[in-house]
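Comment thread on ticket #2218

A.B. wrote:
> Attaching the input chain for the structure job we discussed in standup.
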Amino acid sequence: MRSAGVALAGLPRTPSPERPQNHVGALSTRGQQEGGGRKPRRNLSAGGRVCGGLAMAKRVQARRLTGIDHNPWVEYVRLASECDAVNLGQGFPDFPPPDFALEAFRQAVTGDFMLNQYTRAFGYPPLTEILASFFGKLLGQELDPLKNVLVTVGAYGALFTAFQALVEEGDEVIIVEPFFDCYEPMTLMAGGRPVFVSLRPSPSQDKEPDSSSNWCLDPAELASKFTARTKALVLNTPNNPLGKVFSKAELELVAHLCRQHDVLCISDEVYQWLVYDGHQHTSIASLPGMWERTLTIGSAGKTFSATGWKVGWALGPDALMRHLRTVHQNSIFHCPTQGQAAVALSFERELQHLGQPCSYFVQFPQAMQRRRDHMARSLQAVGLRPVIPQGSYFLITDISDFKSKMPDLPGAADEPYDRRFVKWMIKNKGLVAIPVSIFFSQPQQQHFDHYIRFCFVKDESTLRAMDEKLQKWKAELRP
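C.D. wrote:
> Ran it. Output below, let me know if you need it in another format.
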């Protein structure tokens, strides 16, 4: 137990009760349980009936885990390492964060020794304060750092906390597909029922490269998905894997239906600073009548190219956030302090330069747009047809020509073509991508199995290695 009178990191060092009742200053009681002589647990089998050689009469696995244990990423990551391939599949930069962010982290690690200790459960105060100030201006709201901001273990943690806090048995959750693949299992784990609505491509003009802006929702189809059981809609803009940036008109349609049917919106906006070609990101929470019913999810990992820091946040009205705080304090309770301190310093730097040419939020998307264009040109050389993204880390390419020329790639008979193609490409061409069908619901996978996803937010040396692989591939295509 922590002694009374010792300050939490980021808080004034004044005497305080050992376990304050105020949620923001609550202290963990885990120390009471640690080192208490607990016996080591026996290993449980995945099947849930055998435990360390002992047959169990009771089911081990919780039923809410049924059907969500398979993770397709594991197979492609393993293949990539086995084949010594250029990894363009996973969404992380393989270059360092900006110097100011690295310096901020060094200060957090080597500076105030209290940053090695707990801070406020719901967020290191300097970080919640700068997030409230920074995003309050963007959302047109006066944000209270204690009520409208929650710091989480990455955006992934914010999403999980939101689903656990707001979705219950029988609730329907509308998910726009293609979708980041955690939305469906998180809905199911909370007891909800996913309801899918697809973005669909419209034909591009002759000789014009396809664009993510051509993928649109059908207004009538979207409206038909709302029922009396609809609790929430999950929106991702810029979208992963497509790179679509929803226009203000598209967001207004979604907002209108959410207001009409009294539905919450969980808005995943982790790529909001990575928008290209002059497009503008709009947060749906900034639209009339949407702040009250929207959770806005963000990520320091995507914002500052430091995905391993795992610092994320949720922003929203206290009427929603109080329930996220309840989940947070009864699960992880607290996020690492030093990472939060580094993110706070990084945002303070950006706040001083926001909108100026020296701003990282100006320079970084410009640099990534050049890498996007580099990758798109290179992929076209072997017959892969890119869909040019308006934002995010990713672009998808159409592999229809390959599907028609080499339809019988190895794999299970019912395995979508894009998954077989990616395995073939890793093994034979030394390039890693991710099949786009994994970002669709089961019924739609067969209709979108002719796309694969590449990550272009990579070091220039990685893109040069890609070019070498593609040039070799191109040479093999010559008669």
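A.B. wrote:
> Thanks. Noting for the ticket: The first strand starts at residue 50 and ends at 51.
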